[in-house]
Amino acid sequence: MILNELLLPIFVVLITLILGAGVVDYLHHATSALGKQMSLRRSLNPLAPLYRLGLALSQQSVITEHPDRLNLRLAPALYFALAALGLAVVPWSADFIPADLVTGMVLWGAVEVLATVVIFLCGWSANAHLPLLGAYRYVSLGLSYMLVSMFVLIGVALPAESLQLSAVVESQREIWNVLRQPMGLPLFLIVGLGLTFWGPLDFASSPDLDRGISADQSGASRLVWQLARYAMLVAFSFMAATVFLGGWLGPWLPGPLWLVLKATLVLLILLWMGHNLPVMTPDKFISVAWVLLLPLSFVDLIWAGALALW
Amino acid sequence: MDLANLLLIPLIAAVLILALEKCLRRNHSSYPQARPYSGGGDLSSHAWCRFHVRYYPMALLLIAFEMEMMFMYPWAVVYVAEGIKALMEMGMFLTILALGIVYAWREGVFRWQ
Amino acid sequence: MAVSLWQRLAARASVPVFVASGKDEPDEIQDMLWQTGRIKLVFTPRHASLLVVTGQIPVEQSQSLAIIHDQLPHPRATLWCGGQPCFEFIAAKRAPSPQTLVASAEDLPQRIKETQKQLLSGKRQSEPDLNPDRPPAPWQGKGDHGQGGEGMMGGKPYGRPMAMMEADLRDGLMLDALEFSVGPFYHGLPAGLMASVSLQGDVILKWQVESPPFPTALPSVFVRALHQDTPLADLEIWRVRVHLQRLARMMALDGLDCAAVRTLRLAGPLPCITQAGLGALQKQVGSLEKHLRKRGFFALGAGIGELDAQQANLMGGYVGRACGMQEDARSTSKPYQALGFTVSCQDKGDVQSRRLQLFAEVHQAIALAAKAGREEVMLTHEEIETPVGRLTKRQAPKDHSEMLQSLLPGMEWREALMTLASLPVAGATREGGWQ
């Protein structure tokens, strides 16, 4: 009983995040190398993430002058913990849900909000100029995507008549939300890019700041921060697959496998966007988020509402 | 059990990362190493300062919307049961907020001040 | 000491390299490393194992280079390519570290990989710090944690002095202005450019140039055309090359690494391109442009970094034409007129129009090269339009970094760097290029 209901869920969530982070690392570098037309054999080498791990661990981790040591350590740990919290409410099948919370959606909302705090903390605690600028910019992004995410998720909760994620999956038995609410997934993907400051929304560690919040990280401390960021990307992919792609629902294959497949699909889309779209300028994104994306999410919600009453 | 998981999972995750970092790092940094990176330039002050938050009007506007989210969560659960009435109510609410956004936009709130 | 499992794994990973570019070294080496497998160019010394110094570092910049050197995490090593090491006078008093000189750029990738292997296997010692291990602002504070000084402003509890207040440019609020200097090895800036900046939020209040960027070496073909008959096709092909390299750097700054490497791959082998190759190139550049247009590379620059007529006039070259000025030395030369050359222009002087103008000029130059190559047109002219501005016997394209002091203040950091990348700020030296 303890084994099944306590240890197994904890084990599954943590292993998914850690292995998932390895997969993200692999896919990210492999797709990048393919985009650069590098040699195929080397770009697809499945051991490459291990090599990079070895490299990070053979390097010293430099600590900047007079940092906020406590927060410097805590930021990656908390970011990873948030990813774990988000993944914990995702149902793997009808009867295996690590934490089947009635208010699962609200919890995910809290994860998104707290992520902003944690990412800011990471840049701030180094007491260095470029990381601080990255963190500062990230807050503007965090404050802008938050609402879009809430409205999109509320839209998903309407047909389910519940904030519980297992109910949201059940409500997609006939038709997945990605078809029922066509604007939902694209908007939610933008939220995912923001949550992990990935690709076009990489304001925190953008090239113009010479990697911003990561500019003064090296060795193991950079490794754990990357691990947490990749883990958050994994957690987000699972969440997006659950609320828009029908989660574990699917014929022939077992439920958890469907979930993993769908999450991988979401992950690949995000990685594609990361390689192909230019980093937006921070002030332009505020306008776009509030003047374009937010009204679109209103429309999405009204659409979802009208359809739910149909 | 769900609640126990909910507490334990993030806790174990955080401890895992803290422990991982503690075991793996070798981080005695000398002063020249610890110097913040700026491409080789001089640093005349430390980084922490009273920063100009250029998006503060936007942040204020966000608070108004965040309050509104509190109403939306319960609303979403009873929405289908309440039917068209709930749709109208939220429609009105959103219209007012949307007008607020238009006004804020016109006032230039969504710019880097 | 036994080599750990991690180090054995690490030896097979791509080698992270931080490149510090010096004088007389166009970014050719950097561009080459970008395209090389198993080498990863990183944006900050913190992520690198090796520091690669290309070209000669002037004495004034050697202290900055030493700062960068010390910021690399252990184990680390320095490779010098195309210039003499300049650490001796700093490290003279300390134990000298092995200096690795790489004679030719072709050997560089191989040497990088070897050095990394030696570092990881312990065969080569990690280089010690060059600067003394002393706190930058030694200060013993009062109070339990050394937090207090004299009054509010006293003390240096966080290692360095506090920022001073300054009125903001946009809304006049009095807040702390973050002051520091960037460069000369900041990845997002042209090599050698060092500026002391003052920021509020991430908006630039002040941009004071401390040292101008290192002049870039103009491809020798442009200088030759001043004095003797030169195939016009060669001129145009080199124009394509320099423009594409500039565009690739803009893409990298926008996070478009894949597109940037694709662009560099087009630019690299250009000097020995054949007539048949030009047709294919035209198509590839076309599809690259379409790819970038669809993904918003051009639209991103709209309204950013607008130059007024006077500034655009001063810069000349493609910057002037992006601003709508019909000025091009090529329009006064007979061979070009015979080929039907017309000046192409954009109307707004922002980053978007400069990006569009560069692509338009690349297309035009390929077409001219193809036509001139068929007709074997030769050219000597007292005024040559180079990719970075006008070249005469008396004058090479000038350095424009002074202009940044009035242009950049008021811009957001990202916009400022996008603007900078779109302008040929560095002057040109007249000597033959890297080749």
TrEMBL record, chain B:
Reaction equations catalysed: a quinone + NADH + 5 H(+)(in) = a quinol + NAD(+) + 4 H(+)(out)
Bilayer topology annotation: Multi-pass membrane protein
EC number: 7.1.1.-
InterPro entries: NADH_UbQ/plastoQ_OxRdtase_su3, NDAH_ubi_oxred_su3_sf
Main location: membrane
Membrane-crossing segments per the record: 6-24, 59-80, 86-105
UniProt name for this protein: NADH-quinone oxidoreductase subunit
Entry's localization field: Cell membrane; Membrane
Organism superkingdom: Bacteria
Its job: NDH-1 shuttles electrons from NADH, via FMN and iron-sulfur (Fe-S) centers, to quinones in the respiratory chain.
MF GO annotations: NADH dehydrogenase (ubiquinone) activity; quinone binding
Record's keyword annotation contains Membrane: yes
Organism ancestry: Bacteria, Pseudomonadati, Pseudomonadota, Gammaproteobacteria, Alteromonadales
Family assignment from sequence similarity: Belongs to the complex I subunit 3 family.
Taxonomic source organism: Bowmanella dokdonensis
Automatic annotation (TrEMBL), chain C:
Example of a GO MF term: quinone binding
Domain NADH-quinone oxidoreductase subunit D: residue ranges: 301-373
Region annotation Disordered: where it falls in the sequence: 115-156
Species assigned in the record: Bowmanella dokdonensis
Top-level taxon: Bacteria
Protein name stated in the entry: NADH-quinone oxidoreductase subunit D domain-containing protein
One of the Pfam families matching this protein, by short name: Complex1_49kDa
